[in-house]
Amino acid sequence: MSLSDLTQRINESIPLDFGSIFNNSIELFKKVWVQGFITLLFTFLALIPFYVLLYAPMIAFGISDPEAMNSQELPPAVILFMVLFMPIFFLGLMTIVLCLNAAFLRICRLKDLNEPGEESYFFYFKRDYLGKALLLSLIMLGLSILGTLACGLGIIYLMVPMSLFPAFLAFDKELKAMEITKASFALGNKNWLVIFGLIIVTGIIAQLGFLLCVVGVLFTAMFGKIPVYFIYKDAVGFSSMD
Questions:
Q1: What does the H/E/C string look like for 83-125?
Q2: What is the pLDDT of residues 136-185, one digit of tens each?
Q3: Which of 7, 44, 51, 167 has most Cβ atoms within 10 angstroms of its Cβ?
Q4: Rounded to the nearest 10 degrees, how much is the dihedral formed by the CA atoms of 156, 157, 160, 162?
Q5: Neighbour tally for 74: CB within 10 Å
Q6: What 3-state DSSP class applies to 38?
Q7: H or E element at residue 135
Q8: Which stretch of DSSP H or E encloses residue 1?
């Protein structure tokens, strides 16, 4: 579906219903909580190489000169490396999380519509999607920086359209990264308050797993991602060509 067709669908769609999306998210969560748990585990595993690369110079410096670590001061070269690597760290992490979240939304569609298909958690790590996800992550990083510079208030506004990126990545293969951005802002701006409320409420509920000996949050955390699937489904819908 082209960007113009998507924009037309969004403009002609009825306003999203908070209660309907919330209730549907709870029902679907009962079917995909295991898949959400696995997605979260893959996210944690993806963090490990980045943290190793980020702290490798510090570890190497400590091994080569243990006495210098007592001064609590790192060499300028180590600090410079960590500062320069930090944007790469965030960009790589955001790309992986974006692809995993898109795969989780695809699994949500399979379970919701009882469609045949493999529950592939690495479906969007293919060449056709990975480059697009990298550009989207770069856009998200730039928007986040701009939102932070706007006294932090910009982040509150931007969190709504940026939360929709995984859905358009998952279900609109034809769109380029910038077109996904435009479509997400079009949908987010039209239903900003409802989407913001869903993000906050489901995000709070997703953290209730801490009450179950803390580790329970691993099973509930992905609940906060499910409303994005129904937001896309209700506002854009799926065609037989998808």
A1: HHHHHHHHHHHHHHHHHHHHHHHHHHHHHHHCCCCCCCCCHHH
A2: 999 999 998 888 887 778 889 999 999 999 999 999 999 999 999 999 99
A3: 167
A4: -100
A5: 17
A6: helix
A7: helix 127-149
A8: none
